[in-house]
Amino acid sequence: MRQAWRWFGPDSPVSLDDIRQAGATNVVSALHEVPIGEAWTEAAVRERKTLIETTPAGRTPLAWSVVESIPIPDAVKRRGGEAKAEIEAWIASLEAVAACGIRIVCYNFMPVVDWTRTELDFVTPTGATAMRFDHERFAAFDLFVLERPGAAADYSPEDRARAKTVFEAMSKAEIAEITRIITSALPGSTTDPLTIPGFRDRLAAYRDVDAEKLRRHLIAFLKAVTPAAEARGVKLTLHPDDPPRPLFGLPRIASTAEDYAALFAAVPSPANGMCLCTGSLGVRADNDLPAIARRFAPRIHFTHLRATTREGDGRSFHESAHLEGDVPMVAVLRELVAEDRRREADETIVFRSDHGHRMLDDLRKTVTPGYPAIGRLRGLAELRGILHALDAPPT
């Protein structure tokens, strides 16, 4: 397996030398500065690849192995195959990436919001901080800040009562903070920052899009783009929903094993693959992660390895240390290693330590939410230790 690190480009607080010092050899990156829906050019991709892969004297070489992500425009999620111009621009970006020798592309199909949290610095018992999703705070935002039409129907009377109590106890600063967190584009997001009225408008645009229709739109997108990917040897890897359940009345269609099975049955191309994110899928107690890894092993080309802890209500959770929480990481890695050993060297699975606690010096720095250097370094070291114990040292 190839150990990787997500890098947000030249302006990131984490440098390429930091990545080398963490022990990673592969880079996961994207042209985050390109507006969503605009085609990437081969020249721009090659410039970024040259920056990553030009190795100073005496330094460890790095390889840009995974693009995460080429964002899918909102029009594709709402209109499917009818969004022809947007799909053609996405294919052009894919072709630019392939021309530069990058063979794995990660993407997601979450409408309006990307990964969603209510807190970015939840204090853990060690004093490190983690990202957290608090169901009651989320419901308070949905019902009483956003005031989404029809939201009450998505919550039980008990949920609504608790959400009201939570909302009434929130200060103006707390309301502003949760609004900022939820409505702002987070790293890797496919959304632009939204005002509350703008958020309502975006949600309203999906009024007639249920899970069945959203799945049809994803299948139409895949049928349009997989021939180009297959012809160029590129593997497309769909990231799971995060959290893996409907939010704001929006459907989610990449939350369970059966969701993925339906997509692979509809588009059996070998280019149609999976990003196994243990943290996202692990939020649901009914997702058997080792079984998912085993079932879809040939279609897993990229993995996000992190752990989450489900809290008492079964709907709240927080990011835990990589070998703690509810993810059976050793069992998952055992399945991935078994698959990896069946592959040629240039087809091995790329993994990265996903997210990480904010800890040590990072507590005193400005960091990218979810992506502090030290917490991810700890996570990568722990994962590397498991691989050594499984007699499968990473490359």
Automatic annotation (TrEMBL):
Catalytic activity reported: D-mannonate = 2-dehydro-3-deoxy-D-gluconate + H2O
Cross-referenced InterPro entries: Man_deHydtase (IPR004628), Xyl_isomerase-like_sf (IPR036237)
Pfam families the UniProt entry points to: UxuA
MF annotations from Gene Ontology: mannonate dehydratase activity
Listed transmembrane segments: none
Cofactor: Fe(2+); Mn(2+)
Key words of the record: Iron, Lyase, Manganese
Catalytic activity, EC: 4.2.1.8
The protein's annotated pathway: Carbohydrate metabolism; pentose and glucuronate interconversion
Function according to Swiss-Prot or TrEMBL: Catalyzes the dehydration of D-mannonate.
Database matches in PANTHER family: MANNONATE DEHYDRATASE (PTHR30387:SF2)
Listed NCBIfam families: PRK03906.1, uxuA
Family label: Belongs to the mannonate dehydratase family.
Protein name per UniProt: Mannonate dehydratase
Species in which this protein is naturally found: Shinella pollutisoli
